[in-house]
Amino acid sequence: MRNGAARGPGFPDLRSAGRYVWWLVVSQRGRVAAGATYGSLWMVGLMLPPYVLSRAIDEGLVPGRMPVLLGWVAVLLGVGVANAWLAVMRHRTMTRIRMDATFRTVRVLVAHTLRLGAALPHKVTAGEVVMIGIGDVGVISQTLTMTGPGVGGVLAYGVVAVLLLTVSPLLAGVVLLGVPLLALLVGPLLGRLQGAESRYRKRQSGLAARLTDLVGGLRVLNGLGGKDVFAERHRREARELRDEGYRVGAVTSWVQALGVGLPTLFLAAVTWLAARMAAQGTITVGELVAVYGYAAALVVPVSFFIEGGYDLTRGLVAARRVVRFLRLEPDDAEGSGGTAGDAAGRTAGSVAAGDAPDTGSVARDAPDAGSAAGDAPEAASVLRDPASGVEVVPGLLTAVAAARPGESAAVVDRLGRFADSAATWGAVRLDQIPLPQVRDRILVADNEADLFAGTLREVVAGRRDRTEEAIGRAVRTALAEDIVRGLPDGLDSAVEAQGRNLSGGQRQRLRLVRALLADPEVLLAVEPTSAVDAHTEAGIAARLHRARAGRTTVVTSTSPLLLDRADRVYFLVGGRVAAVGSHRQLLAEQPGYRRLVARGEDKDGTDEDRTDEDGTNGSGTDLPRTDNGTAPRRPEAPVTKEDV
Fold it and tell me: pTM, whole model, 2 decimals?
């Protein structure tokens, strides 16, 4: 495992579920070969005691042949000890095989999740991701257990057939035909089980996604009075899942019952036939004991065959879902440099080497190799978005305002290269610049970026160590001093995952602190002040303008307090630039713009209560509002772009 961890998990075969399972096998071929060897020797060893016992009865239970009896007893004891050791080694090896498969799949999944980044919630539900992690991974690993006793069962079957031929061709024929017949009887049930498992698994992931949405939006649902509606829908789907589980359980119970019952009936039939032959004198008493022992020992491999088929059926269902997930491509496919499986394997290798995301944040999109078509401009250059007509001039605070927040957010995604576009940076298209160069110099600060558990210092500092002075400047710019003072240990206070112990406005200001600490050449901020009150917003606008003086900054907002501080404002209609100018110019010349931003002003239609340049009048109060009264902005992106 240590060597495998150093090398990385490798490149999974995503052509089918069966090929993925086979990839897990060949990825540890040496260990699988050892497990198959131990399993085979153990299975064959189970067939030897009946033979030794029959020889001891026929040759040792004769007057005057005590030494012969003692010799066979010693052989029987040696076989038992050897089998016990083989059983221990087989179990230990198969456990390692399952663990290797589990960790290999987990590492590939985690690496691919990082690669998908912000595209993940748009392509797969949270419930599906949860169910893959807590269910499918273990089921796939269990499938590999059959590589040990499965091979040994076939060899044991052949050994018993040869031994029975020396006793009775009739008994050998019964055994040779009986074991395949048992497999044929269980086969149709395994096919039915696979269909039932697939349907159950689909409903299970859907219900998990529903529960995740219900918990995540509980406060909103309470406010809208929709909690009972969603709760009833969850109860109905839970009942449907329960009914589907009953159907899966019914098929599973039959498979398991036949796995125990059929070998037992088979043992009884063979024993009855051998007993009649012994009574007729066709075989000896020792051979009768041997036949019973062979048939009883065959119960083990036959049970393994049935259980292995059951595990394989469930494993293929689980592997199919894992493969489907690993085939997902990020929205920005540029720079992936290969198939989903290849990229997942390469990224997984870096994760194994210790490049996992830090406590403070996780990249919204893991840096890919990028295209080598061109380099980023050396000097600060204009960012252009042809799709909207927005041009970001270096060194200015640019604002983008739109009635639909998703339109302005889409501009940021294109300029930050989180969406495919023809956006340019200077004279070079963004998608032709190696992605690491873009991420090093352009930062997209999403208003809904995740906050991960850790101390407040770790949350805002991200992956790099920050000085107290730098943190203090960023905290003051974001008017977040009250957050630091309000926590028991200041910057060393614990912040829960997603900032659950903070208010919405506090979380938003901490995200802004984190973005400011990154100090990028180009900062693209999506609705950075939508959850704070007007006094705090005005203070942040003034301090942000001063802190980012000479640096390129873009904000999306319809708040007049923030727009008034912008050097240039782009007014979008239908996703295209309808007008450009200062905030006051647009107020005077554009009725549509005037109506849009008026929704963000105070009730008296003025903004005279703005704070001064220092923001000293900021109250720090958080407001439960979105986009200053406009329609809710785009669906939240669950991971941050700020520390890429």
Answer: 0.54
